[in-house]
Design brief:
Largest sheet: 8 strands, mixed
Organism: Bacillus vallismortis
CATH superfamily of one domain: Jelly Rolls
Protein name: Cysteine dioxygenase
Strand content: 35-45%
Number of helices: 4
CATH architecture of one domain: Sandwich
Low-confidence stretches: 211-215
CATH topology of one domain: Jelly Rolls
Mean pLDDT: 83
CATH class of one domain: Mainly Beta
Helix content: 10-25%
InterPro entries: RmlC-like_jellyroll, RmlC_Cupin_sf
Number of strands: 11
Distance between the termini: 35 Å
Length: 215
């Protein structure tokens, strides 16, 4: 793959799994070979529309039995707590991954890790987590995301609202994995799923993450 355009490297991975069922370990090995130059990173950033106002920009690369996209994360942006299943490969900047679990009517922080360029975040099926980008200088973070099975939309994604104790299931109209701003993005709502959190134990760390993501 030396000298090959990195989007083409990702497309090669997608093509490999057109007829081959993805095996987690093998897919991880394929993804680990991806590298990206500063020139290519700037190209992705420049492809984001000037009038874009979201938390992150999704650029679809391709779909087979594996779906791939590149995400550009902006200043102070993050995604809300949600369920997911994917392999995330950090291309630039750093991503903080916070894992949660719901137990005994409480939303609990389970684990916190920081992934730097060349490292991966593994989102096992049914995982509840949140991603917070930590930017380098003034550049957005970039990450490649691999889903299997691939996702055609955010429909069915569950957003966990720590303030209300609700779980909101997104509809096909949702554009981001965040608490919806309008009713058409909501498929269903579960009330009173939890009543407490252990966030107070991590308040200092959360404040540091917020500061780091906006520097």
């Amino acid at each position: 793959m030396k000298g090959e355009d990195k989007v083409e490297m990702i497309k090669t991975i997608i093509k490999k799994y057109e007829t081959k069922t993805p095996i987690f370990k093998e897919l991880v090995e394929d993804v680990s070979k991806i590298k990206i130059s500063s020139k290519e990173m700037k190209r992705y950033i420049h492809e984001v529309p000037d009038d874009f106002e979201g938390n992150y920009f999704r650029q679809k690369v391709g779909t087979s039995q594996v779906g791939a996209l590149i995400m550009t994360w902006f200043k102070g942006s993050d995604i809300h707590i949600h369920d997911d299943s994917a392999i995330i490969y950090v291309l630039s900047g750093h991503l903080i991954n916070i894992k949660y679990q719901i137990m005994n009517k409480s939303l609990l922080v389970k684990d916190i890790t920081i992934a730097q360029p060349g490292e991966m975040i593994f989102e096992e099926k049914g995982l509840i987590h949140q991603i917070i980008p930590v930017r380098k200088n003034d550049d957005p973070c970039l990450s490649a995301h691999f889903y299997f099975p691939p996702k055609q939309s955010l429909e069915g994604t569950k957003i966990i609202d720590p303030m209300s104790g609700r779980i909101i299931t997104l509809s096909s109209f949702a554009k981001e994995a965040c608490i919806p701003s309008n009713h058409e993005e909501i498929l269903s709502i579960q009330e009173n799923v939890f009543f407490d959190t252990n966030f107070s134990l991590f308040n200092k760390l959360f404040r540091e993450q917020t500061i780091a993501s906006s520097l």
